[in-house]
């Protein structure tokens, strides 16, 4: 109630007498006191709200800082995990590459050995074929000479000196026709 009469002053010596206050004046004074009290209360509420807002802002800043630190720590851990995984995958890839290279080298060595063996076999085959070709050529040439000699004899030319072996092959029949012999190379079939 003391607040209701704050605007009320005690009379002093210099104070002039005023008429007694009416109920409306008293009510107006009370309303003014209530408004003043409400203004003070509103100011205190606003000041409290401002303090609370600053406190909340500081709390939010603190939480934000904590969240940033946590996010940085999480990101750092994820980077470290990713780097470790990359190193592990790199090692696996290197091992697989080394294994593939070793397998390829072994296959290349085996192919080289096979090629060398085939080359040696072909050289032997070539030498053998060359020898057989030379024999075949000699036999064909000998057969050719015999045929030519037989043709010359059949045509009435003098018989050249022939080896005894060729004379043995002459037919024993007394016929005067062309008598062809089987060449020596054809008789020697391997």
Explain how this protein is built.
- With 190 residues, this protein is an all-alpha fold.
- Helices cover 74% and strands 0% of the residues.
- It contains three helices and no strands.
Mean pLDDT across all amino acids: 80
Residues in helix, %: over 70%
The helix-and-strand class reads mainly alpha
Which sheet architecture does the biggest sheet show?
Answer: none
Shape: rod-shaped
Gyration radius, to the nearest Å? Answer: 67 Å
Instruction: Give the low-confidence spans.
Output: 171-177
Number of helices: 3
- Summarize the helix and strand pattern as letters: HHH
What is the strand content? under 5%
Which key features would you list for this structure?
190 residues, mainly alpha, 0% strand, rod-shaped
In brief:
With 190 residues, this protein is mostly helical.
Topology:
Layout: H1 23-154, H2 164-168, H3 184-187
